[in-house]
Amino acid sequence: MSSSIRPTTIALATIGALATGFVAYAVYFDHKRRTDPGFRKSLKRESRRIAKAAKQEAEAQGAQQKQAVRDAVTEAQEEGFPTTVEEKETFFMNMVGQGEALCQSGESGCPSHEHNVLMQTSESTHIEAALCFYKALKVYPQPGDLISIYDKTVPKPVLDMLAEMVAFDGKMPIGNFGGGSGSDAGGSTGAIDD
């Protein structure tokens, strides 16, 4: 039998040393936090700074999203919409199909990407999906009925963007929008005039 140290003993000693170091740091940090007023102030300042930066980033991202929604609606209005019944039916079916496909592709994110890249990709997919549903809504003869269907089937982020698009449009008489499942979203009985 040799007198060398076993690898399991070395591993246990290393794990014990790391655990002891972590506990010692936690005790030191807690003691410093409780007794040093300057340290407490610096922690509060850092916490406020991080919260302020996060709030500013969220506001900037929200403004960018609203601008992207407005740009998409403006572009869709400039492109125009079909006028004959057959063209409207075909256009409607294509737009709803594209919107559903985009919603499904937006829900399955690739975990290998960084979080921000994934969120931006998901957000742009949601805008594209909402734009497809918006275009379908523009050619549908009773948009209030279609909104109640969207309310039950479309994911909430896409539905929220669609609501922004409809609010920005202002020409679509649909009544209440997004009143929850089972709500009466009615308000329009006629065709949409472009």
Provide a descriptive summary of the structure in words.
- This protein is mostly helical and 194 residues long.
- Helices cover 75% and strands 0% of the residues.
- It contains six helices and no strands.
- The longest helix has 43 residues, at 37-79.
- The model is unreliable at 108-119 and 177-194 (pLDDT under 50).
Percent helix among the residues?
A: over 70%
The number of helical segments is 6
The largest sheet, given as strand count, sense and whether it forms a barrel, is: none
Radius of gyration: 28 Å
What spatial form do the alpha-carbon principal axes imply?
elongated
Distance between the termini: 93 Å
Question: Which parts are unreliable, with pLDDT below 50 for 5 consecutive residues or more?
Answer: 108-119, 177-194
What class, by secondary structure content?
A: mainly alpha
Arithmetic mean pLDDT: 80
Number of strands: 0
The fraction of residues assigned to DSSP E strands is under 5%
Quick structural gist:
Helices cover 75% and strands 0% of the residues. It is built from 6 helices and no strands. The protein starts with 6 loop residues before the first helix and ends in a 25-residue tail after the last helix.
